[in-house]
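Title: Prediction job returns without error message
Component: structure pipeline
Severity: low
Priority: P3
Assignee: unassigned

Description:
Job completed but the reporter wants confirmation the result is attached to the right record. Sequence as submitted:
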Amino acid sequence: MSTDRFSLSADEYLAKHHVLTYLEDAIGQLLEHKEDNPKVNPAKFFNDYFTSIYHGNHTLFREYAFIKSTPHNRASFIRVFWKCYRHIGKNGDLLNVKEYHSLLCLLCPNFPFDLIQKTARIILMDDAMDCLMSFSDFLYAFQLQLYYEEFLEDCNKLYEKLTQAPRSPRETVVVPSSSTSPRQQKKQQPLPPPVDPIPPPEGIDSQQFLEALTQLSDVTKNSHPKLSCLREILQNTNRVSFYGFLMALAKNDSVNSGIGVLPAKASIMDDTEQDHAPMPTPRSKSAKPILEGRSTRSNMR
């Protein structure tokens, strides 16, 4: 870790860890905070700000643009969502797309609805708005969609490109012999009975998709799962559909541990004292970097 750190130039280090993003945001938050409290201590403010980033408490009630601005922000928001609402899973409640969106808007007022729709398609594989989803299914699909959003968009483009590639013809060609004229041959060979057309196989060739994803992983600057995870999923099947691929990624333990936010699905409902997170309450637009909500329980049904 330290060797890699010192092998980077100053600009590379700042870009890799999004230092300038946090500095710019911290200064903006300080100036906004000073309007309400002119005697604020800048040194203490910055200490509190970066402490909240370290502990992952800094995305609560922030705008979506800030949440998606860094991988750490996305991971922190996923963890906050899990901690705040896991009682839904413990109770066995099933919610639809709009209800999950309402819960997320309590944490981020302008959270985009289309991202929740994309999450639901991973689980349901269609646009059914009223279908109910368990909390654990939604949580892991949501983690995948939010954390790897740009990479999944690139995967979709690759998938569509492969589906449009021309297929190799497999029709049998009969060549007439030189001793028989085409007219005689037509009389001698009755026409075969009509058969129902064979539908094209579902999905695309898994190996071709894996090769395309390998090339994408080599050039993309967006966060993406490890190639070992992609191979683990795609080498076990001959053909794969796009949403089947996404569902496998969402359920893959290696993908989950690579993000490093959620526990394994088997222990997602485990409850320990230090894991409790405050339940959110609506805040004004000028929410501060260090935020605490009341420990209440929202009834969204």
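Comment from assignee: result matches the submitted record. DSSP finds 15 helices and four strands in the chain.
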